[in-house]
Specification:
The chain is an alpha+beta fold and about 575 residues long. Among the domains are: about 5-120, Pleckstrin-homology domain (PH domain)/Phosphotyrosine-binding domain (PTB) (PH-domain like); about 265-340 and about 380-480 and about 500-540 and about 560-565, Tumour Suppressor Smad4 (Sandwich), CATH 2.60.200.40. Helices cover about 25% and strands about 30% of the residues. The protein contains twelve helices and 25 strands. It has helices at about 105-120, 140-155, 170-175, 190-210, 235-240, 245-255, 285-295, 305-315, 345-355, 425-435, 495-505, 510-515, and strands at about 5-15, 15-25, 25-30, 40-45, 50-55, 55-60, 65, 70-80, 90-100, 125-130, 160-165, 185-190, 220, 225-230, 260-270, 270-275, 280-285, 320-325, 365-370, 380-395, 415-425, 450-460, 530, 535, 540-550. The strands form six sheets. Strands 15, 16, 17, 18, 20, 21, 22, 23, 24 and 25 form a ten-stranded antiparallel β-sheet that branches. A hairpin with a 6-residue loop joins β8 (about 70-80) and β9 (about 90-100). α2 (about 140-155) packs parallel to α6 (about 245-255), α3 packs parallel to α4 (about 190-210) and α7 packs across α8. The chain starts with 5 loop residues before the first strand and ends in a 15-residue tail after the last strand. The protein binds ligand LXC25N3T, adenosine-5'-diphosphate (ADP) and calcium ion (CA).
Length: about 575
């Protein structure tokens, strides 16, 4: 066990009260020197100190030095508070002003605290590239960044280069093509779509630099960290990796250099990469909701609730063949009623399993899909039938709409995904399934629902519905995502998708025939795939899970007392 050695200890004043303050290697503690309150010690981990300033300093709403005596210093740190509206813990900027008996002692405290910060927080970012989507969510990205985040970055000495995007995929292209020397990480201010741009940029860039093809099963894991300041409609990636969708909490995770590895699913069509996903690759209900919601983007985040209701009422199901490669059932399973929390042991063990003999967990390594068991045809399991929804998620995908998520026991970084198969059922049954996402009731405890922990998934259409063989390939960075000048790559409802397909000469007669099933009389026989909020241009796909391919400035959900489990 590490011994927490005392570096400096003295008697200090906070306001009118006297405290015994001690800086150990890992903590700053202060205890009131009043017999009645002996047990009232405040303890802040050094890794959670945001800044140390001389004098009495305030930063919010504006930076001011109210009283600059030469015997005072101010410590800013992470302070947790519970959140009334969701389960996670909110982080806020704590501030304590200390007064020393002499200037010499103040200087000693300043020096020791700064040394401690340097020594014990080596992974803090110094320079960040920030992309703001001014149109995401409630269109408040710019204001959120400038009023809540920028002052904290300034206080912590994090410099940033800010790009306010003018088109979809500008952030992705910037990361793929521009000089990134000197940046420790990239940050998006927006929703899951903006995160997805950064994800594609960072993974693509890393493969380019490693001389690898993104179409291959093996990918190089990425060093450049991604930060998310939530300002979108679903904010699922932020919520599932931090526990709340709160800009200040996320800014503080970025500042202290938290690092959370994340599994990524690559989606392929006929051996070409189409897109990456972390939260949802969903066919049927979730695909239809996304396609419908794009026509109601003006509603903002409410578009999903409205479209969800409309699609539910249309009561559709789709035929297909789902095949999956099961993960090792000894390690974990999606119904073990556990939760992936900060420091999760299943994920830690899988770091060893996925990257054995790696002396440094943060250095690049090749993430081989299916490295530790055979990927032979015999291992694939097939399920044929009609489905209300087929969903694959690499993590719990908890979000404000569903605080426990699509798969509450899924892990952020275990190298597996959860495949949820909802077979065709009566409308009330499906409503029960959907409704359970909003409570602690088990959505998998229904006779028409199956969930499997998997390493890969394949989906094919029934023989009569096959995709055209001569269909033009749309692959990542080459048409699958929106082109330069497009307002947003999600501009297509199923109608729009047909138009975009025609523009590109895509011979997809099947989809042209189906059009939109909500307003046209013939219900569609084929749905679309929702890939983290992007409609995929293909129906027959193969998905592979890549363990810990990227790293986020986050630490997973903290074990707050309010963390719920399932009934
Ligand atoms: C009767 C109540 C029904 C409630 C169903 C709740 C199920 C919610 C599960 C949500 C999973 C979300 C997975 C994440 C998806 C996002 O990537 C995607 C794009 O987000 P954004 O960029 O912020 O726009 N969001 C969606 O596809 C929305 C799905 C909403 C389905 C109701
Ligand atoms: N300046 C822009 N104009 C139009 N679309 C943009 C712009 N910047 C980013 N986008 C695209 O907007 C989409 C939605 O953004 P996102 O921030 O995820 O908001 P929301 O959560 O509301 O969907 C993303 O897919 C992104 O590619
Ligand atoms: Ca996982």
């Amino acid at each position: 066990m590490d011994v927490d050695l005392v570096q400096l200890e003295s008697s200090l004043w906070v306001g009118k009260k006297r405290y015994r303050a001690a800086l150990t290697e890992w903590h700053l503690n202060w205890t009131e020197l009043d017999k009645k309150n002996r047990d009232k010690t405040v303890s802040v981990p050094v890794s959670e100190i945001v800044a140390v300033e001389e004098g009495h300093v305030e930063v919010l709403p504006q930076r001011s030095v109210s009283e600059d005596t030469d015997r005072d210093f101010t410590v800013f740190y992470v302070k947790r508070s519970s959140n009334g509206s969701s389960y996670g813990l909110l982080w806020r900027l704590g501030r304590t002003q200390f007064s020393c008996p002499s200037r010499d002692l103040r200087d000693q405290w300043m020096t020791q605290l700064r040394i401690a910060l340097k020594t014990h927080s080596p992974s803090r970012p110094h320079r960040l590239l920030v992309f703001i989507n001014p149109f995401g969510g409630k269109k408040q990205g710019r204001e959120i960044y400038h009023s809540l985040v920028a002052p904290l970055f300034e206080l912590a000495g994090v410099s940033s280069h800010v790009v306010v995007t003018e088109r979809a995929n500008q952030a992705r292209d910037h990361i793929l093509k521009k000089d990134l020397t000197g940046f420790d990480g990239v940050v998006c201010v927006g929703g899951d779509g903006m995160f997805s741009e950064l994800l594609h940029g960072v993974i693509g860039r890393t493969q380019q630099e490693a001389g690898l093809s993104e179409h291959d099963p093996s990918l190089q894991s990425c060093d450049l960290h991604i930060g998310i300041i939530p300002a979108g409609s679903t904010d699922c990636v932020c919520f599932a990796t931090v526990g709340v969708n709160d800009p200040v909490t996320s800014a503080l995770h970025i500042i202290i250099g938290d690092s959370q590895p994340l599994d990524v699913c690559s989606v392929h069509h006929r051996s070409s990469l189409v897109r990456y996903s972390v939260s949802l690759v969903g066919y049927g209900f979730y695909g239809d909701v996304l396609a419908e919601s794009e026509r109601h983007r003006w509603m903002g985040p409410l578009r999903y609730d409205y479209s969800g209701a409309m699609v539910y009422l249309s009561n559709r199901s789709y035929a297909g063949l789902v095949q999956y490669l099961p993960a090792d059932p000894q390690l974990s399973n999606p119904r073990d009623n556990t939760r992936c929390l900060s420091g999760c042991s299943v994920c830690s063990k899988s770091t060893e399993r996925l990257f054995p003999h790696s002396p440094d967990a943060s250095s690049n390594y090749i993430s081989h899909f299916s490295q530790f068991s055979s990927d032979s045809e015999g291992d694939w399991v097939s399920v044929e039938g009609r489905f209300k929804a087929v969903s694959l998620t690499c993590m719990s995908s908890s979000c404000p709409r569903s605080p426990l998520g699509l798969s509450p026991s899924a892990h952020l970084a275990d190298g597996t995904g959860d495949l949820i198969i909802v077979r065709d059922t009566h409308p009330l049954g499906f409503l029960t399934f959907l409704h359970r996402h909003t409570s602690t009731q088990d959505q998998f405890d229904l006779p028409f629902v199956d969930v499997h922990r998997v390493k890969a998934v394949r989906f094919s259409l029934p023989p009569g519905e096959k995709e055209d063989e001569d269909e033009e390939r749309e692959t990542v960075n080459g048409g699958g995502m929106a082109e330069e000048g497009e307002r947003t790559s999600r501009s297509g409802s199923q109608h729009h998708l047909v138009e975009r397909g025609e523009e590109r000469g895509m011979a997809n007669d099947r989809r042209k025939k189906d059009l939109c099933g909500l307003c046209c009389s013939k219900p569609p026989s084929v749905s679309v795939w929702n890939c983290d909020g992007e409609i995929l241009p293909h129906t027959e796909i193969l998905c592979r899970v890549h363990g810990q391919l990227v790293r986020l400035y986050a630490r997973g959900m903290e074990d707050g007392s309010a963390t719920p489990t399932r009934k």
